[in-house]
């Protein structure tokens, strides 16, 4: 059977992708950030997943004001990097796992979660930057990837509780798939950042570090946090953090923290990163 073995949380700032693509990872500004991912790159080389179930948000690249699915699962064979205004990132296409994606779609319907099915879409920095941070610059991504897009751009996004619950349902779905697959689930976005308005540039280290603590030890209490708390404490784009609760919901109640990293700043964003191992 397929099994979810680990979870990864990471921010997904576009400038990180540009730093990688333009060979700037050793620049003074960027080197401390990339050092924080060295453990994870080594760990994933030693523990390669067959499939990554990658929870991310689209930033008006594949979807726009005309169509805004709350939860959308990529069921296609492959997904190209999106052109976000500077051309497509020079990274490989993402190869999907249609059989597992359709199985999750079916299983979640039975658990009362109705997902939008996406057979064709381009994937933006929300998905490709985490892949680059974890895998570097290979000619082809070393595993299949199921894109799972969450609307956190146009209000209202799903609640933290809804995200946590859907994570639990995703775990059941994956672990009822009749093929031996090592599956990781990743949650991306966050941490505190606000890109617009009078509070643009907001960073809240105290909130972020408390979020990292509680995501590990007390995710139920985070699931109960209302959107307005994210807005006040973590800024308007900080609400991306609800996606980390999908990842956490798909893991055991008790998890082992293999790696934790926090760094400010990367562009306008506080970067947080966790590698969590399922104990079972
Ligand atoms: C930035 C961060 C994001 O999460 C994003 O989606 C776009 C931009 C930034 O800090 O520049
Ligand atoms: Fe974002």
Structural account:
The protein has about 280 residues and is an alpha/beta fold. It has one domain: 3-Layer(aba) Sandwich (Protocatechuate 4,5-dioxygenase, Chain B). Helix content is about 35%, strand content about 20%. It has 10 helices and 10 strands. An 8-stranded mixed β-sheet has the order 6-3-7-2-8-1-10-9, sandwiched between helices. β9 (about 255-265) and β10 (about 270-280) form a beta hairpin. Bound molecules: 3,4-dihydroxybenzoic acid and fe (iii) ion. Fe (iii) ion binds near residues 59, 126 and 237.
- Number of self-contained structural domains: 1
Beta content = 15-25%
Order of helices and strands: EHHHEEEEHEHEHEHHHHEE
Strand count, sense and closure of the main sheet?
8 strands, mixed
The chain-level mean pLDDT equals 97
Bound ions, cofactors and other small molecules, one mention each: 3,4-dihydroxybenzoic acid, fe (iii) ion
Oligomerization state: single chain
Which stretches are poorly predicted, pLDDT < 50 over at least 5 residues? none
Radius of gyration computed on alpha carbons: 17 Å
Question: Which characteristics define this entry?
Answer:
10 helices, 280 residues, globular, alpha/beta, eight-stranded mixed sheet, binds fe (iii) ion, Protocatechuate 4,5-dioxygenase, Chain B, 10 strands, two-stranded antiparallel sheet, single chain, binds 3,4-dihydroxybenzoic acid
Indicate the topology.
Layout: E1 3-10, H1 14-21, H2 31-35, H3 38-46, E2 51-56, E3 71-74, E4 78-79, E5 94-95, H4 98-110, E6 116-118, H5 125-135, E7 144-150, H6 160-174, E8 182-188, H7 205-217, H8 219-223, H9 227-234, H10 242-249, E9 255-266, E10 269-278
Parallel strand pairs: 1-8, 2-7, 2-8, 3-6
Antiparallel strand pairs: 1-10, 3-7, 4-5, 9-10
The protein binds 3,4-dihydroxybenzoic acid (DHB) and fe (iii) ion.
């Amino acid at each position: 059977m397929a099994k979810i073995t680990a979870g990864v949380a990471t921010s997904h700032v576009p400038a990180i992708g540009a730093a990688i693509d333009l060979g700037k990872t050793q620049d003074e500004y960027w080197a401390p950030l990339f050092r924080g991912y060295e453990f994870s790159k080594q760990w994933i080389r030693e523990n390669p997943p067959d499939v990554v179930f990658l929870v991310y948000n689209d930033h008006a690249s594949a979807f726009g004001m005309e169509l805004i699915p709350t939860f959308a699962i990529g069921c296609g064979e492959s997904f190209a990097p999106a052109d976000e205004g500077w051309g497509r990132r020079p990274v490989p296409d993402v190869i999907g796992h249609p059989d597992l994606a359709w199985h999750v779609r079916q299983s979640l319907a039975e658990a009362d979660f109705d997902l939008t099915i996406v057979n064709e879409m381009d994937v933006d920095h929300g998905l490709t930057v985490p892949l680059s941070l974890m895998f570097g610059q290979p000619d082809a991504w070393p595993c299949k990837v199921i894109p799972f897009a969450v609307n956190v751009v146009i209000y209202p996004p799903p609640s933290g509780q809804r995200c946590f619950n859907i994570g639990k349902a995703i775990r059941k779905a994956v672990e009822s798939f009749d093929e031996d697959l090592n599956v990781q689930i990743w949650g991306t976005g966050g941490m505190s950042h606000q890109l617009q308005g009078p509070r643009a540039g907001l960073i809240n280290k105290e909130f972020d570090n408390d979020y990292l603590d509680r995501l590990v030890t007390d995710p139920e209490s985070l699931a109960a946090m209302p959107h307005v708390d994210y807005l006040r404490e973590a800024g308007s784009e900080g609400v991306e953090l609800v996606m980390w609760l999908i990842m956490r919901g798909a893991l055991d109640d008790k998890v082992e923290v293999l790696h934790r990293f926090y760094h400010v700043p990367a562009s306008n964003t506080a970067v947080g990163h966790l590698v969590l191992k399922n104990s079972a």
